[in-house]
Amino acid sequence: MRRREFITGIAGAAAARPFMAGAQQSAMPVVGVVSGQSSDADARNSTAFHKGLKEAGLVEDQNVTVEYHWLAGQYGQLATLMADLVHRQVAVIATTANAPAALAAKAATSTIPIVFSVGQDPIELGLVASLARPSGNVTGINFFTMEVAAKQLRLLYDLVPKARRIAVLVNPANGPTAESTIREVQEAAPTIGLQIQIFNAATSEDIDATFATFARQPPDALLVAPDALFSSRRVQFVTLTARDRIPAIYAQRDLVTAGGLMSYGTDLADAARQVGIYTGRILKGTKPADLPVLQSTKFDFAINVQAARTLGIKVPPDLLSIADEVIE
């Protein structure tokens, strides 16, 4: 696997170009995979993407070259990155669980095939005209996220029934996800009897600043919206929530395996596998317009019992019984 952390700025990208030009000269087609996460946070999804390629009959370094570009939540680099991929005429651009990257790719090219996975409605985002007949050069996977935030609120309430004031953290740089999360929690909170306060964080420093605010006005619990930046800062979240004794729920399971309390969300690895399959089919000659947008509805609920004990929380048996993964 050709791995590349995206380098900030035009000069950095130019400095890296000799290496990338070598990939372009390869006899094998080059796939540019753009992830919003860091390389370590994206390991499970990367493995799943390659599994999907293999299911489609393609194996890296045998009949395809894969370049990974990890943004680690730095969405401001997308325009430069996409311009570079288009300039080198990669065979396919694949974006995993990353609406900003999918939109940037579509804005950058109308000819290079694009395979996306997004949690929002791809028609509303303007990625495709129709799910059944996407047309143009774009298709992909729509992983189902409707009412996920509402479910997360309910799980928090079930775990901490005395909670009333819930802080919700979103990344404003990831507009589509932030907007849908805010809309869902604001609609769901009154039905459960919860009060919601929205906080924004677009950098690790913003996360620290948010927790500094919590020190003055501690919430009863925290809901962290799905975002690549937040996933890449999982150690930071685990450390801060443990220090301040704040029960938190996340969208990605890797925050729970790192020591976080609880997660509920789409199985992003399954979506990445399907992106790999579609990428392989396109490389074998299928047009993106002939591949309908798939809808993935596989969810994953994980809970860390040790983290609960540290917070002084006893996990109800009913929650344990529905968890897909229980970390002792």
Could you characterize what this model shows?
- The chain has 14 helices and 14 strands.
- It is 44% helix and 21% strand.
- The chain is an alpha/beta fold and 328 residues long.
- It folds into two domains: 2-144 and 267-298, Response regulator (Rossmann fold), CATH 3.40.50; 148-265 and 300-327, 3-Layer(aba) Sandwich (Rossmann fold), CATH 3.40.50.2300.
- The chain is elongated and about 60 Å long.
- A seven-stranded parallel beta sheet has the order 1-3-2-4-5-6-12, sandwiched between helices. Strands 8-7-9-10-11-13-14 form a seven-stranded mixed beta sheet, with helices on both faces.
Summarize it.
With 328 residues, the protein is of the alpha/beta class. The chain is built from 14 helices and 14 strands. The strands form 2 sheets. The chain has a 7-stranded parallel sheet with strand order 1-3-2-4-5-6-12, sandwiched between helices. Strands 8-7-9-10-11-13-14 form a 7-stranded mixed sheet, with helices on both faces.
